[in-house]
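Summary of Year 1 activities. Much of the first year was spent building the evaluation harness for sequence design. The harness presents a backbone, in tokenized form, and records the residue chosen at every position. We chose the following record to illustrate the format because it has been used consistently in internal testing since the harness was completed.
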């Protein structure tokens, strides 16, 4: 006897409209989800995964998008033809959604208590102490430490993992029948990913909740999904049980996805004099309390870190969210205040005035985690890449254009794209643009802050190979900050493992990956490389 169906999608098609033109982005998509089941939609960026998921609750940007055909049946009710009043009773109540980027999904001006309370008030009528009690219960359920102290916190005051846990708490507030999780662990480190997965599996078992998981991370899918649909160019090209798909994938595209893990070893590098030397670096943030706001304690984001990075090598910096990785990078770039010694090219950066640091900016470049957020939407790609050239007064206008064209070719983009804008590119292309912006100034050191975390595996592999080839060609030095240990392993000569602002293990990357000594490092590696996706 067939299992009952909670959600069924039949022959779904979605068109996007631009003026008089239409483009079909999803075609003939069909699948069903039973109560308590986890179905994963996997594929590259632009394959139609999120469009399909957003269609369920009709969250697409209408009238830019339309559903020319298909049915979406929740317990027999066709959501595509339901009224707004009917949908409001279902959204966030019977079907809830965790969005990909919690920092943009959460209201930056409201404390998390108010944001979760809104969901409870709308669907359950809970207010006052009853709502607060439920909010504390939810925050504890998703593993937020000291939840009572976090109620008044704004989203920017939480780490990435904590923001994602808040999003999960909001989604689970009304104990939904179906949870749609759109890349719920994309920007999280591996140990937090495991905790989030364990949490979701535990809640599924307790609540009998079904889950639709959208992900490009096949290791994650393998650990949690029961059914898998592989999407390419808006169509499902393979649908199978999770076990069958990983054991014997039938479609060439599925095989390509399974083989897309970043591989290889770091670029060859000869022993060289240190380009960057850091000694006893500290970044302490004061904790002020009372009416007079006196400093009562410090948050030790970076606490006494030191290393030496030779020219042409990559130092990988790994650790959980909140371990101080990004703070370390910002301190080295002199974007936040710090104590200790930072020597670059033999020059002590600490104590230099801003005007003295500015000439060094040309040689100290950075590539951020979210290229869409770090590229100005009002500037063309040529203007974005050429901005540094103009600021530093490098060359004539003609020479600057030639440099922009040359660097676009070097990162694998058509020079004609310099006239286009960031929203016209995929995530992988935008990251190549961000790399080109840093590279055009011929820097000695590039700080790479989670440059591949939001990219799917096939694009990650391409970016890793690009970074490796650029390093070999130009003798670049990288400070590579990441929670993705597969990417770190493919790029890094040295490794620093951080926990709560301190270094717990450091040394040659190959040696640490082969035989980690500290229990925390062992935990990270176990979480990252457990049950790798392989093709028989």
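For this record, the design step produced the sequence shown next.
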């Amino acid at each position: 006897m067939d299992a009952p169906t909670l959600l069924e999608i039949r022959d779904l098609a979605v068109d996007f409209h631009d003026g008089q033109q239409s483009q079909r982005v999803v075609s003939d998509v069909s699948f069903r989800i039973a109560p308590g089941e986890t179905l994963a939609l996997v594929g590259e960026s632009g394959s139609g995964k999120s469009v399909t998921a957003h269609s369920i609750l009709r969250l697409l940007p209408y009238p830019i998008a339309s559903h020319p055909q298909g049915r979406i049946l929740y317990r027999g009710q066709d959501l595509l033809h339901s009224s707004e009043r009917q949908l409001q009773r279902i959204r966030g109540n019977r079907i809830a959604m965790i969005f990909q980027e919690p920092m943009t999904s959460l209201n930056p001006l409201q404390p998390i208590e108010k944001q979760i309370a809104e969901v409870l008030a709308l669907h359950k009528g809970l207010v006052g102490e009853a709502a607060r009690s439920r909010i504390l219960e939810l925050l504890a359920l998703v593993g937020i430490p000291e939840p009572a102290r976090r109620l008044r916190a704004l989203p920017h005051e939480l780490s990435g993992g904590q923001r994602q846990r808040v999003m999960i708490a909001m989604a689970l507030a009304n104990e939904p029948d179906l949870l749609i999780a759109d890349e719920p662990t994309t920007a999280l480190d591996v140990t937090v990913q495991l905790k989030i997965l364990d949490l979701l599996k535990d809640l599924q078992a307790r609540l009998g909740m079904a889950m639709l998981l959208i992900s490009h991370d096949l290791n994650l899918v393998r650990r949690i999904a029961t059914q898998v649909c592989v999407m390419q160019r808006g169509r499902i090209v393979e649908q199978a049980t999770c076990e069958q798909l990983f054991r014997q994938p039938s479609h060439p595209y599925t095989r390509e996805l399974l083989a897309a893990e970043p591989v290889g070893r770091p670029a060859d590098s000869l022993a060289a004099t240190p380009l960057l030397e850091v000694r006893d670096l500290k970044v302490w943030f004061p904790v002020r309390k009372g009416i007079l706001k006196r400093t009562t304690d410090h948050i030790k984001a970076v606490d006494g870190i030191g290393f030496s990075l030779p020219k042409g090598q990559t130092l990988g910096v790994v650790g959980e969210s909140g371990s101080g990785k990004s703070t370390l990078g910002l301190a080295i770039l002199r974007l936040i205040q710090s104590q200790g010694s930072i020597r670059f090219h033999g020059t002590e950066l600490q104590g230099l005035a801003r005007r003295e640091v500015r000439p060094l900016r040309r040689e100290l470049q950075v590539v951020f985690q979210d290229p869409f957020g770090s590229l100005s939407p009002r500037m063309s790609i040529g203007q974005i890449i050429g901005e540094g050239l103009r600021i530093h007064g490098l060359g004539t206008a003609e020479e600057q254009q030639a440099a922009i064209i040359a660097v676009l070719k070097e990162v694998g983009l058509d020079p004609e794209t310099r006239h286009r804008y960031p929203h016209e590119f995929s995530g992988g292309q935008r990251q190549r643009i961000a790399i080109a912006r840093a590279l055009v100034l011929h820097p000695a050191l590039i700080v790479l802050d989670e440059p591949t975390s939001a990219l799917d595996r096939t694009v990650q592999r391409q970016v890793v190979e690009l970074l490796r080839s650029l390093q070999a060609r130009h003798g670049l030095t990288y400070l590579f900050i990441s929670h993705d240990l597969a990417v770190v392993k493919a790029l890094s000569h040295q490794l620093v493992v951080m926990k709560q602002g301190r270094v717990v293990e450091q040394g040659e990357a190959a040696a640490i990956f082969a035989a980690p000594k500290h229990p925390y490092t062992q935990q990270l590696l176990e979480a990252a490389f457990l049950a790798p996706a392989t093709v028989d």
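The first strand starts at residue 7 and ends at 18. Quantitative recovery figures across the full test set are reported in Table 2.
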